[in-house]
Amino acid sequence: MKATIICIGNRFVPADAAGPTVYDRLRELALPTGEIDLVDGGLQGLNLLPLLERGGRVVFVDAVSGFVDNDADRLVLLDGAEISTWPEQHRFDHGAGIGYLLAVLPQVCDGEMPREIAVVGIEGTYDAQLIERAARLSIEVARHGLQGSR
Predict the structure, then answer these.
(1) pTM of the predicted model, to two decimals?
(2) For the chain, where are the E strands, in sequence order?
(3) Helix, strand, or coil (residue 116)
(4) What is the model's pLDDT at position 69?
(5) How far apart are CA 77 and CA 61, in angstroms?
(6) Residue 65: other Cβ atoms inside 10 A
(7) What are the structural domain ranges in the chain?
(8) What Rg value do the Cα atoms of the chain yield, rounded?
């Protein structure tokens, strides 16, 4: 199944730079040619909709908050249903995020809906080791889906 990894966030704001930092690491790795597309989603918001209309599997990589109770592991893996429960789901301003994007998708999709959507989330501060783990996990989810990665 064709997959797209979309790394989102603002590389100029440290608290929101996890996605772009993972993107930079993924560019250094050898992704399976023709199997996984890598996208620097930055702050594109609703402009990402066309990337979600190609079917297949979509893996977002982003900074998250409110999912980790302790400092033991700040890497989270969420599926589409979990994403729809984010508090940001009900925001409609510039900061609406992935939840809003996914809420709008079924209403405006002109192509094929994704078969599976996941978020590799990094909570709080991160280091090179956590970025590496997030990059590897995003590749694993893109290749094998959530069931093969949990």
Answers:
(1) 0.86
(2) 3-8, 36-42, 57-64, 75-79, 116-123
(3) strand
(4) 67
(5) 10
(6) 12
(7) 3-144
(8) 14
- The label of the residue with tokens 């969420």 reads 78
Distance between CA atoms of 73 and 53, rounded to whole angstroms?
33
Paired tokens of 31? 């992704």
Q: What is the C-alpha separation between 141 and 131, in angstroms, rounded? A: 15
Could you report the per-residue pLDDT of 89-146, keeping only the tens digit for each?
444 444 557 777 777 777 787 878 888 989 999 998 899 999 999 999 999 999 998 8
Q: Which of 7-11, 70-74, 83-87 has the lowest mean pLDDT?
A: 83-87
Q: Which residue has 């608290």 as its token pair?
A: 15
Q: How many CB atoms lie within 10 A of CB 150?
A: 9
Find out if CATH 2.40.50.100 is the number for domain 3-144: no
